[in-house]
């Protein structure tokens, strides 16, 4: 069967699919899991804020037209010259291909990092990380060895900071529940530069840093990770830091299969796309979300964020609807709606244009964007079902 094939049901692929579904345009959506993951909230899963199932939305719930088909499979290879996608469940032919396979954590070949550290890039990974920390608490109770209560997160970007913020709240609470002392708990955030959160204004970075320190997080700044061993990070400065839990959030890269298919990629495997989000030099292949390298009118490459991914997917879907009605495509223009970083369930920092918000106000903005996203995905029913659980009402 040919037609539009969308690879990946993350923020980008799903936004494109929903736009096509709304207009009754047929497509096939391929994803490795039968659900969409709220990836921007995975730190909440690692900190056991709510049941992990509330961070996964069944794809079946979202599409209503019989024109769409969902295929749960692993994409293995793209055969662009034959217009075929190879999956672990067979081959799919396409006329138009949308690649929205997201990204995975990049380890940049640092020795031992892939083997000895945890990542936070999928629901499964977040659950594994959470279970590991619970096991470490158990081991501490049995052995009293403080290494089991030491946690090191490498990478002071959004992922690392939100995870640390979550754990700075959850871990002391968990130890108190288990009637364990807090003195041996050590939380460390390693970052290669002088300030964390490179994508927000200097003033907000200072607020976020002060808040983490106030809650007992040690900021290990201007230090680069040189490698990892079982239960230790080695730093370029020669230091060796031991911890029972090592997490790596040092950056992301797109999957290898894009490069292997001959698409034009950068050092992070992102495919160079034009103003219509079409891969340069490839016929009827669009790339959106973390997989895409899009350069805006000011020469800036857009960052790999959920916000960019969703806008790209939505725009591409709308362009394909236009094309089905014989209208020309419109160029993609990104609108920055700001950024909110949560530092646990009770505090956050937000930057909306030139305006800043901190504390509970920032979290209200984050809740607002969660609600908007749910409303967009599934309308008021999905919003109510999910949001009730997140608000614990
Ligand atoms: C902890 C954390 C916090 C974050 N916070 C924010 C935030 O506050 N704001 C923000 O804007 N961004 C945030 N991000 C970044 C954001 O999550 C990503 O930029 C966004 O998910 C990218 O969307 P995407 O559609 O490109 O890819 P994804 O959302 O990763 O979706 C890709 C989809 O493709 C599927 N897939 C991948 N490979 C295959 C394959 N081979 N076969 C079949 N299926 C496959 C995956 O299962 C997935 O469903 C955060 C990320 C993390 C990890």
TrEMBL record:
Q: What class of enzyme is it?
A: oxidoreductase
Cite the Pfam families for this sequence. Answer: Pyr_redox_2 (PF07992)
Keyword line: FAD, Flavoprotein, Oxidoreductase
Q: Which InterPro entries match?
A: FAD/NAD-bd_sf, FAD/NAD-binding_dom, NADH-Q_oxidoreductase
Name its co-factor(s): FAD
Gene Ontology MF terms: oxidoreductase activity
The chain positions of domain FAD/NAD(P)-binding read: 4-313
EC number(s) on record? Answer: 1.6.5.-
Instruction: Give the matching PANTHER family.
Output: 64 KDA MITOCHONDRIAL NADH DEHYDROGENASE (EUROFUNG), APOPTOSIS-INDUCING FACTOR 1
As for family, the record states: Belongs to the NADH dehydrogenase family.
Q: Would you tell me the protein name for this molecule?
A: NAD(P)/FAD-dependent oxidoreductase
Give the source species.
Alicyclobacillus sendaiensis PA2
């Amino acid at each position: 069967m040919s037609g539009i094939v969308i690879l990946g049901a993350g923020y980008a692929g799903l936004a494109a699919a929903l736009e096509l579904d709304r207009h009754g345009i047929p497509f096939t959506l391929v994803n490795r899991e039968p659900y969409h993951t709220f990836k921007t909230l995975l730190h909440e899963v690692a900190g056991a804020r709510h049941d992990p199932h509330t961070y996964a939305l069944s794809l079946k719930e979202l599409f209503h037209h019989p024109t769409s088909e969902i295929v749960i499979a692993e994409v293995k290879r793209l055969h662009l010259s034959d217009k075929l996608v190879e999956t672990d469940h067979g081959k799919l032919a396409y006329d138009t291909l949308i690649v929205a396979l997201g990204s995975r954590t990049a380890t940049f070949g640092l020795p031992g990092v892939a083997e000895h550290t945890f990542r936070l890039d999928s629901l499964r990974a977040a659950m594994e990380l959470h279970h590991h920390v619970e096991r470490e608490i158990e081991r501490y109770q049995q052995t009293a060895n403080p290494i089991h209560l030491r946690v090191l997160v490498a990478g002071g970007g959004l992922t690392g900071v939100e995870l640390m913020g979550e754990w700075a709240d959850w871990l002391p609470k968990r130890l108190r529940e288990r009637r364990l002392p807090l003195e041996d708990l050590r939380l460390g955030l390693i970052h290669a530069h002088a300030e964390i959160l490179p994508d927000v204004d200097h003033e907000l970075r200072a607020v976020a840093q002060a808040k983490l320190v106030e809650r007992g997080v040690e900021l290990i700044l201007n230090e680069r990770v040189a490698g990892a061993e079982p239960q230790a990070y080695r730093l370029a400065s020669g230091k060796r830091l031991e911890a029972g839990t090592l997490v790596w959030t040092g950056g992301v890269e797109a999957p290898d299969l894009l490069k292997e298919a001959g698409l034009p990629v950068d050092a992070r495997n992102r495919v160079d796309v034009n103003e219509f989000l079409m891969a340069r030099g490839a016929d009827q292949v669009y790339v959106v979300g973390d997989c895409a390298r899009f350069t805006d009118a000011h020469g800036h490459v857009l960052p790999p964020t959920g916000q960019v991914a969703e806008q790209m997917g939505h725009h591409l879907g709308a362009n394909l609807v236009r094309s089905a009605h014989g209208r020309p495509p419109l160029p993609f223009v990104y609108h920055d709606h700001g950024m909110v970083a949560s530092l646990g369930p009770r505090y956050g920092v937000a930057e909306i244009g030139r305006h800043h918000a901190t504390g509970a106000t920032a979290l209200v903005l984050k809740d607002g964007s969660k609600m908007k996203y749910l409303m967009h995905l599934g309308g008021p029913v999905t919003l109510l079902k999910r949001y009730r659980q997140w608000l614990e009402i």
